[in-house]
Structures are given as C-alpha cells and as structure tokens.
Amino acid sequence: MGASVPEPVARCISMDTQDEPTRAPSPEPLAEPNAHTERAPPELPPLPPLAHPPRVQTVYERAATPRRPPPSLSEASVLVFGANDCAQLGCGREMGDAVSAPVLVDARGVCSVGFGACHSAWLTVDGEVLTVGANDHGQCGLGAQVEELLTPRLLEAFSTKPVAQLSVGASHSAAVTREGELITWGESSHGQCGHGEGTDVDVRKPRVVQALRGQVVVSCVACGGEFTALCTTAAEVFTVGMGRFGALGHGDLADRALPARVLDLLAVPVLAVAAGERHCVALTHNGEAISWGWGVHGQLGLAELAPVALAPTGEAPSARGSGGGKAARQTAERALEAQPTPRVVIALKGTKLRAVACGGAHTLFLAHGADGGHADMDAAPALVLACGKNDAGQLGVGDTAERRTPAPVAMPAGARAAPIGGIAAGSEHSTLWLTDGRVYVWGGGRLGELGLFVNAAEAACALEPRELPVAPISGRTGHVLVCAGARSTAVLVAPGDATGTTSSAPRGVAEPTARFESAVEVEALARGAVGQPALDALARRAGAVFASPALLNASFARAAGAASAAGAESERSAELERAYVALIQTHSRSSVVLHALRQSVGEVLARLEEVVERERARTPAPAASGGGGGGSGAGTSRGGAAPPPPAATMQCSKGRSTVPTIPASASGGVRALVRQPSLALHVTGGLPSSAFACRALISVLQSPIMADSRLTSDELPRAGKLVRSLDSGALGLLVVALRSLEPSIFGARIVRALRSRFAELLQSRADAHTWSEEGDSRQAHVLALLALAREANELEPESVGRTHIPRREFCIDWLGERADLPLQYAGWVQGGGGFNVCNFPWLLPVGAKAQLLRVEASIRMQTEVARAVQQIYAPLTSAEQPATGAPGEPVLGAKPAGAARAGSGGSDGGGGASEQEPRLPSHFEKLNPYFVLEVRRSLLVQDTLRAIGSSSTRLLLRPLKVFFVGEPAIDEGGVAKEFFQLLVDALFREDFGMFEYNQATRRFWFRQQAGLAEGAEPQAEFFLVGLALGLALHNGQILDLRFPPALFRKLLNLPVGAAQLADVDPDLARGLEQLRAFDGDVESTFCADFTVTEVAFGHAHSIELKPNGATLPVTNANRDEYTELVTRHRLNGSCAVQFSAFQRGFLLMCDGAALSFVTPDELEELVCGEPHLDFKALQASAQYDGFRSDSAVVGWFWEVVHSLTSPEQAMLLQFATGSDRAPVGGLGKLRFVLQRTGPDSMALPVAHTCFNMLSMPEYTSRAKLRDRLLIAIANAEGFGLQ
C-alpha cells in the first residue's frame, strides 16, 4: 500500500430550516430505557438476489456492558460499497478490492462514516470513534505497531472525550469533541494535523490541537486531501496544512503547520466548511457559498479565477520543507489555476443554499427552490447544482463537459416527489437522498462506488442520477444518511417516520454558533435574566456576539418575508434595534450587560481594522484626487461658476486630506447598488470581506451606546478613522448599507448620534471653526462618518429629489451662529487651512446659508460701491481717463427693453399718461454707489424692465434703492419690499401672458412656446423677469412666488422627471401613470402616437417627440419611452427657450460660489420665505419701545393678532414688514418692534417697514385696538412722510 497519489475525499455541510445545521442527537439528555426505546427494531426486508450475496459483517466488538444508544440512529443499518483495497469498507477482505453492490453490515449505533484514500472512520451516537483500513501513516490512530486493520477498532483515546463530528482526509483524520476541542491524527507531512513545526511527520495517535485549546470552540471540521479546515462557534474559519493549491485561503500558496485564521472571512458569518481534495467551500448563515483553492476544472463555481500575486522567489517553502524543486517549477502554472483568496460564488447570489458537498474536483450545492422563503424549508422545492470536473459524469448534467459555474443536476421525474434530505460527493461520484428513503447516485463507478452494478467489469459511469435499487432503501420508509468519500460510499438506514430531514454527518457542539436568532429571543433572555448569575450569562453571550463581526452578521438574519434585499436589511436593522433596547434595559438590574456591550465595541472595531488593513495590503489605495468632501453640494457652482477650492478638501497646515466620498463618476453605480444589492459582489470582485465588514460596522454604529460619550468616548472617532481608510468600492458598499436602514433608525441612531458627537467635539474648543485635521483627528474622523451618512441620504434610487431623511437632520444650528461666517467665506475663497464650514455647507442650517449669500452679495456690492467712489474722485481733466468711466454695457446690449405689451403690467389698470415717465440713469447717476430704481405704480412692470434692461451688471450689483414717482418715501428697505411684492403680482397676472396658472396645484409654470403672444420677444422678457428675481435675492428680499419645486431644481441644473411632473401638470401625470399601469392592449385602447398637441389662441400645434413620431404608435413595448419623452417635453422641451432666458437672467445676479451651498428646497425658502406664519414665535422674539411687555395694551395686541384669520394675519405682516412671508428660519427670526406713539387717540397704527416697526397709541380697550388695526391693514398701500 502507498499514498503516492492521495485520493480526494468528500465532506458535506448542510443547513436546516432555521439556517442551522442538523446535529446528531446528543446522548446527555436521554432518559433510561422505557417502553418506547426498548421495543425491537423492525426487521429489514430481504435483499434482492445478487451474484455475490452480501455477507453480514460485525463492524466492531462493543464493550462488555454497552450503553444503549439513542433510538433511530442507534438502530440504523449500514450498507457499504466501493473501493475496499485496504478493507476500508469495514467488511473485511472477503468481498474483494472493489465491492460493486451494497453490503449490509451490522453497525448499530453508527451515525456517520468518513472515507479516506485507504482508511475510514466511524462515529457512533455515543461519541465513540472506530477506524479501519490502512495505518501506514497512523491514520487509524492505533500507533505504529499496526499496519492495517481488517475490522473497525475502537479508539480508546475518545473514551473520556465524546466526539460530536469527525472528518477524514486522504491519510489523516480530525474529530471535534462535544466540548469544542479539535483532535487530529494521521499523516502530517504538510502540517495538516495542526500540531506545529517539529512534530512527527505522522501523528499516529489522536492528539488535541493545543494551538486552539482554550482559544476557540470548534463547531465543525472538514479534512481535504492534505489540509484541514474548521469553523468555530464564533463563525470564524481556521485552516492548516498544504497551501500549494491555495486551499488554505490565506492569499498565498504557503503551507501552515499551525491553524491560522482566514482573515478574509473574519467578518463573514460562516456556518460550516466543506473540503475537497484541493479546494474548500464555506457556507454562510444566510445561505451563500464562498470558495477558494484549486479551480482549474471550475470546482470553485467562479467564472474566472483572480490572478495570484506571488513573491519573486515563488511560493514559500512548505512547513516540512517538501515540494522543493518540483513545486518551484510549477509555481507559475499553479498561480493560474489556484484561487487562494476566498470569493463569493456570484453565480449563486440570490439562491439560498441548504448544503454544500465537495468531491475530488467537483462541488455540489443543495439550494432551496423558488419557494425559498417557505416557512417549512424541507417542504419547499429544492434544487441540486454542480460544477467542476465532469469526466466521469459526476456533475449529473447528462454529459461529460466541465462546468465552471453551477449548473442544475438533471433530476429524474420520480425524484421530485419528495424533499431532498441531503447530498454527498466522492472522488468521481455524487449522491443525494430523499426524505422518503430513496437514494440516487451518479458519476464514476469503476470501483463500485455507485453500487449499481453486480460485476465491477460492468461499472462505467452514470451521467444522470439513478436510483439505488436496494430493497432496504427503496422499499422502506425511514431515515437515510449517505456518506461518500474517495471511491467508497456508505448508506445509513434507520427505521422511523420519514417526514423529517436527515442531513449529512452530524457535526459540531450543541450550538454551532453563539449568535442570536432574533430580537424576540434577546427580549426573552433579557426578561428571564432575573438573578445575577443569569445576567452574567447573558452578558457573556452578548459580549461574544457583539464583539465578533461574523456573529453580528450571523445574528438577526434576514426576514423570509422581505420583498427585496434592501427590505430584508431594513427589517434586520429593526430587529437589531429591538435587541439593543432589550439588552440595555437590563441596566436597571445590573450593569454587567451594558458593560459587556461597551467592551464589545472596541473588540469588534479591532477585528474590522484587521479586515480593512488586509484589504489595503492586498490592493493599495490610489492617490487621493480632491473629490467631494462628504459629497457636499459645494463641489462646483451649479450656476456655472466654480468655487475657488474643492469643497471636499479639508486643507491643513501640512498638506491636505479628504473626507471620504463617492466619486461623482461612480455615483450612478452606487445608485445601481441600491436598486440591486447583489451587484456589491461585482464591485469587490467577489471578495466577501468588504461587504460583510461594512454590514458589521453599520450594526456597531447603530448601537445606542455609541451616542453616549460617557460610555464610548473614542469609539466613534475610531470608526471614522477606519472608514477613512476604505477604498471607493468599499465606501460604496457602506453607503448602500446605510441607505438600507430603516429611516427612523438611520436618523436617530446614525445621523443624530454623529451630529451630536461632532457638535460636542466642536463645542469643547474655543476655536471651533479653525481646527486642523492633523492636530484634531477626532473631529475629522467623526465628520468623515457624518459625511458618508449624508452620501447615503442623498442617493435617489426611485425618484429624483427624494432623500432618506430630511436634510435638516444633518444641520448643526449653533455652528452658523458661532462661526464667523464672513471670515469663513473669505478663508474659503482664499484657500486657507483648517476646518471651514464652507467646505461642508450641509452642516449649516438654511439661515446660515442665507447669511453666506448675503456675505457674498455684500462683498460684490462693496466692490461695485468702491469702484463707483473711485470713479467719482478720478481726475476729470484727463483725456486718457475720462470722468465718465462707463461701468459696463447694458445687460441687453445697446437696445433697452421696450415697454411691455399693451394693457399689461399696470398695478391699478389705469393709464399712466398723467405721470411723468421716469428717466433712465444718467451718466453721472451711474456713478452713484447705489442702483436707484425709479418707477411708476401704474406702469410698474414696464418701468422696471426698461430700467434694468438699460443698466449694466456692475450697476445692478450695487445696493438697490427704489423710489415711487410722486411719493416722498425714503427707501431704507421697506419701499423695496413693497416694490418687489407689487412686481411679482403684476408679472404673474394672466393678461401679462408669460406664465400659466394651474388651478389644481395653485402654482405657475412657463407658458408653452406656442402659447406666447405673436410678436413677443420671449428671450428678452423672460431674461428680464429672471434678472428681477435675481435682483431681489441679491438684495435679500423675499418674494411671493408660486412656482413648483421643479423650477428651483432646474435653476440649480438638477434633473427633473416624473417625480416633479405632478406639481406642474397633475392631470398629465395621472394620465401617464394610468398608461404605465394599464394591463390591456395599449395601442388599440389609447390610439396614441409619439406626438403631443399644444393649443394656443384657438389653434392646435402638433409636436413630434422623436423623428417620425407621428407614424409611430404607442404600444405596450414602448410606452415607458413614450411617458419619459412626454414628461421631458412638458418640463423641459416646451419651455426650453423661456426657461433658458429666465435662468440666465437669474444667475446673472446670483451666480456666486455661495449658491452652490444651497439645495433646491433651501433656494425656494431663500427666495420665497416660509409660507407658514407662527405668530407665537414672533411674540416670543418681539421687542418693545415705550411699552412694557406686561402692559395691558401689549397683551390686547397679541390677543387680537392671534384671533385674526390667516389672510388677516398675512395682511398684518405685509403692513408691518412689507412682506407677507416669514424670513428664513420663521417669524422667530424677524426683529419686530412694537412702538408707543403716545396716549390713547383715534390715530391709526403706522408701520415703518424699513425697520419692521409698528407704532400705535396706547389704546384704552381691546375693541378699539382691533378696530384701528384692521382699518390700517386694509388700507396699506403707498408711502408718506409723517
């Protein structure tokens, strides 16, 4: 005998309905024999006649007083067939070297059999281990005195260490005790027994692996050809042995003599592992497969193998120094064939796996069918898939061609009548069994491993599954378990009800992992933890789970009823939230659980840092390229001008570094990830570490204790530092994971916690707005997390313009008040160092942004004022520098804007002939430091457009002063307020014809091109209207504009679509939605083509949406394109000329860099103010001049104000301040003064709109005050000097 070419072995792992492995019944809880357990097992039917009748063999001699094994498996019978050249079948040598028909052996009590190349090991339900076959390397564990065992012999080494699961390699074996220890024996030429350097090449007696003892609790083990893989209760994977083919998963081809943790799986919730001859597959708790090792035949299920980067000297020497010259010569070849880094089998993404079995060079996958979410997984349809080598038909696909990705096994029709119980694989053969007791085999059968042939000479191969025609199996209802390995097979048949599922070999300790199943379980444990011992036990378990990224990911698994992956993650976050709350509430009884959670945060972050560091070592991050500082809107001016520095960059005194963000070029891909999370694996090339690490990090950030700096002072900055070291691909995954959280959890647990901690760190500094990243990394790290959360919030997967939570959740209100905004803006423009809020405008409330816009406008005004003053005092006699110094050309060129069309624009409808026409600014008046606008009330629009059309941009940028012809008022702000209010009212009148009003939305939109009056000059007029509105914003005036939100998105060059159509044309939006949802024949029902009709002045105009649209009918196939084109035309095409001119005029005044700070909603608020009027807030902030706040007349005044109707309150605000809109931030931000003008009289209240002041006598009654006030606000137009 020899082991020159070790035969492959097969190991099978499986999952039950709750994603946990099926385990062997543990003997401890069994009661004494009773009437139910002592009844004799039913007799097996006789075997059909065979050419060589099977001889019943006694497998082993039991102890003198045997313990009674548990029912079912204890009464099982074992059928063996296949290779028997070393008596490894346990039936002696009498049956020959190849047993081609099943042999029934007396093996009651055996629950699992493992086959190696020349030996086998048998596990009983009592935890005893027997071995049989060759022992040249000590693989039978009996020492050197025995070369071969013809009958199985009990290993005394396990008399005090009952075994829960065992596995057999080519010439070595491994067993997991019920206490979670790993014991190995046999050949260890490559260190596969895991006892370290300096040990014997052959470990001839079972020995505990000391490197793992006391460090981990092993849950399962799988032996490959010359390596060993194991999984722990912490869901971690260790490997040891030959690494020549990448089967250890450490990213190289070096051997390991001691078990080493697979760092790429550190955050992956691995349930169990399966090992083939040279490859390995891990099964996760959520039913995914991760493979690594030799993949030349496609046995890894990966479409392509990633290139392996090796050291220049080739592979590292093996643990034993073997494989010298030959291994070095084959390094390049193996590098192309091996995949030493674990990768997710992307082809199976979305398929929930129940079991995986690895053969010599092929792999089987048992997956739930389409009804994978069925409550009873065993009753759901199942599917077997296979990939890899197929020269003997071991894939069962009907041919002998290899499959690089999993392909369905050709199941016979009869095999679909019952659920699949499990799968197993040998060197070149495969098998599955059904819960009704039937067994199917396929693949190579040269040595009888299929059990289908009477004579070995007849054995060839079965290309498709064939039922094993043996009476004890096919003619009997009972539990069946098949164990296959190398070229041998064992079938365990036990009597009993066949309704349950029997999986593969039982494995592991009582609990495969220490995870939490659900929040319900945690809540029950928390309620039941009454005494201190129970609380201590709960603390230990909670500490273990929340300290392990893998266990965190394994806990609170996806809900089966979720409609999508994003929905499942949302439900998982809700489960996790309930669990956190239940655990923290135990603090009222004892602090041990809270202390355990607090400690676990640091531990889990340390493990995640290992994962990230390994990723960085494998793929060095590219050099930083500026990019977006947390994705702030300040990257470029959406109006066309770019701000001076990149808004994303935090510039320090010694260089610059960036807050992590998703590059703009990749934003589309991240949005695609939100719609289809399975694409995440393509982003990372199938590497599982990044995706699972991001998921674990989100679970940590969701912890309520992270928001309490008293409990976790350093953990949030530490997590931020970790995030800042991620590459763009991992950042994208993290953004997607954040976006998938329930909005309430995302806002409360993530955003508010980060915002509060960042604000707390800033408030602890006297120079909150000048810190540098280098010296204040804690603030920078937390800001990095907050910026990433904002990236997630800004993703728009379904509709343009919708955020996950309101943007104001990211704002720090006091930051705008404490930071010196003028200084901040100046520093930002000059590119100064230190923290600058202008780099992160999303931190600022809208009021602070309004202040920044005013700062920018003030700078521009002061520049123009200084230029005007300089021109006034310039030498007047110099011919080369004339005193006139024209400050620029008119905005409309040499041709001033003419009067508006006849009959439009007047505020009172009367003729203006009696009023003197206001003069255009003279040359000298253009040197005035103010832009003086003189208009007539009766011809307000014409005078305004004429004046601004003939003025230069420089002149318009100066502070505005408005004068009404014939009125002696001095404009200190109040006159301008009324002017803009009257101007807006006139511009949007129906007879002016520029905008159309929608009764349903009560909003205006641009009149379509066909509806404009003949002879109109739409570009000039809309340009001037936009310019007037920009002039109002430039001067800090609030306008009562009734535009839909789509306008403000378009002004900032943001896209508009179906989400905004309802605000512009709700009838059209409703009709298009009905068209999309219609389930009949669209063409015959709607009779539409790719045209739209616009009606104007009694004439219909047909417009084609695409070339030859009039001849193209709308059908079910192209209706989505039609609705998109109609929407695009209504929002863009039909008003393209008008809006383009309008936008140019608006941005002529407001195209500063500060405009890029605002969002569309904020721009609308800045232009229009707040329509909601909170007079209680105004009362709280009001000031008094001559009155005391507690005087009777003040009380009466506010009683009258609160009793007014909403229109009357708006009129009062218009009367007192010149505008019926609240400023940014609400009426509480308005400086309102109530002034006493003298004792009681019949005088009406007087408003000083320039100073927001209302003056009135000290009336003697509430009724009189109300009467006088209502008269005043009802007659409030015009100005006069008092």
From TrEMBL:
Compositionally skewed regions (Polar residues) per UniProt: 650-660
Gene3D superfamilies found in the cross-reference section: Hect, E3 ligase catalytic domain (3.30.2410.10), Hect, E3 ligase catalytic domains (3.90.1750.10), Regulator of chromosome condensation 1/beta-lactamase-inhibitor protein II (2.130.10.30)
Keyword presence, DNA-binding: no
Single GO term (MF): ubiquitin protein ligase activity
Annotated ranges, domain HECT: 952-1282
RCC repeats: 76-126, 127-179, 180-234, 235-286, 287-369, 382-436, 437-495
Residue ranges of the region described as Disordered: 1-53, 314-336, 613-661, 880-919
Residue stretches of biased makeup (Gly residues): 625-638, 903-913
Assigned keywords, A-Z: Repeat, Transferase, Ubl conjugation pathway
UniProt xrefs under InterPro entries: HECT_dom, Hect_E3_ubiquitin_ligase, RCC1-like_dom, RCC1/BLIP-II, Reg_chr_condens, Ub-ligase/GTPase-reg
Catalytic residues of the enzyme: 1250 (glycyl thioester intermediate)
One matching Pfam family: WD40_RLD
Lineage: superkingdom: Eukaryota
Pro residues composition-biased segments: 42-52
Biased composition regions of type Low complexity, renumbered to the chain: 893-902
Name this polypeptide is given: HECT domain-containing protein
Native species: Diacronema lutheri
Lineage: Eukaryota, Haptista, Haptophyta, Pavlovophyceae, Pavlovales
